[in-house]
């Protein structure tokens, strides 16, 4: 298929690129925000080869493309001068946003910071683990390797995610705000430019001998590589500057003056005010953690580790995760957060060991051992939390006790993370010279959690445990089985309040009115697509049949809020395995319909009939 031609035909029939305020996409459809919907030709678009259907809802003109979505979207962005994401336009209907208040200011700030930093964390971890690998090579294999050009170049790769952190943060922050990312990235990149960095280098070599000014205003000479907060502040200023300029600059001059004005204002203020202010705030945050370390340090690590299982379930751990990179910058190590996260993960695994040693259910015992290994070796704790410890309730005492004890031991022995990495046994090298201290904390967490869990006991799982609506238990299913993805009431897909699904544009399927919080895999197979917001995922069964699970209607607008993703794209999963956990109350309070749809997008010429009436539990057969 010629995706560029299809993209051109779609743009022409939505009124041309001049009629497009912005275009985004979810998992199945392009989402246009248009200046004048009357200029579109719905019939012409629907007749295009590759287009499944067209819907206009919520102020968005939606073109359903299914598997052709991403190539067409990329062709549009490459071939046409249209804006991605939200558009700053007072005449465009945008999703209703909760106004700022003293009550929600804290959560909004945390949500913004987390949204800007969290997508960057995998890159930091990747760089950190490469640094660990180089350290291990130099320490245990060949010390002379550190003098080679290969080591130098590999170190450059490993350091890049940290050195250019301001640019990555600026991109994510601008995306979160709905601004044009490149403007924030340019303004943040100015802080790292060689001309400015050379002043930083000169100042380090000759204190008090270097100065700079902009418009007669003194510019503090500070190093902003690996910094976090200056980029966030610059992105905020760039967003509001762009928004203001879009209002006052005539349309014919926008292309010239909006971008120029935005980077001029944000970049200049970055040097004069925003960079120094961000640096100061970073020092304040670091001093707070240093105060805890110098006063109740070991107990702070233990208390945080004990609280983490509840924070993870509430999503509150994301509020403190962004400060890990900040601590690695100033004071240069993390003596609180990473040790606590690691102790908690070990405690989750230890509690699973305690359950495995006590349960009389052989199948459940095997599952507990497997989850324990996952928590301890890989640092994957959600299956342990939801599948065992929270489900049986009393093992959570073991988790808290183990985390507290392990955190105190790690703190007393001086465990400090010097490199960004994972919270598991395989990543202990990130603690460098204090790795043995963290290892002692890990062993303590595992042993204490296992012993406490074993002594406290729990209500054992019967051999033939029934699946409850909120606590899915995985069973074995044949490869041709399609099961309920959630507990609740089945509904004929024709009753869904979304034309794309009710008219079966994407394929036949069934809808669920949820009574449980877990959305699970409908079949044995592979997660071939998983939207970052968690509101939809695709499964390819072992026979090639393709299934789509869409959680709620228009929930893509929540940008992941209320969705806790428990798996990853490319993962091999079993029917009934939890993929996403939803916060039903939060999502419904936002006014969204949580009707969840299971669609057979490609049946591979198989005649598949699904049950679509009555009450059902997650994991029940549908075919």
Automatic annotation (TrEMBL):
Source superkingdom: Bacteria
GO CC aspect terms: plasma membrane
Record NCBIfam families: PTBA (TIGR00830)
The keyword Manganese belongs to this UniProt entry's keyword annotation: no
Name of the protein in its database record: PTS system sucrose-specific EIIBCA component
Segments forming domain PTS EIIA type-1: 498-602
Subcellular locations according to the entry: Cell membrane
One of the GO BP terms on file: phosphoenolpyruvate-dependent sugar phosphotransferase system
Record InterPro entries: Dup_hybrid_motif, Glu_permease_IIB, PTrfase_EIIB_Cys, PTS_EIIA_1_perm, PTS_EIIC, PTS_EIIC_1, PTS_IIB_1, PTS_Sugar-Specific_Components
Any single Pfam family the record assigns to this protein: PTS_EIIB
Residue stretches making up the PTS EIIC type-1 domain: 111-472
Molecular-function GO term, any one: protein-phosphocysteine-trehalose phosphotransferase system transporter activity
Keyword line: Cell membrane, Kinase, Membrane, Phosphotransferase system, Sugar transport, Transferase, Transmembrane, Transmembrane helix, Transport
Active site annotation, chain numbering: 26 (phosphocysteine intermediate)
UniProt key word Cell membrane: yes
Catalytic activity: N(pros)-phospho-L-histidyl-[protein](out) + sucrose = sucrose 6(G)-phosphate(in) + L-histidyl-[protein]
Gene3D superfamilies hit by this protein: Glucose Permease (Domain IIA), Glucose permease domain IIB
Principal place of residence: membrane
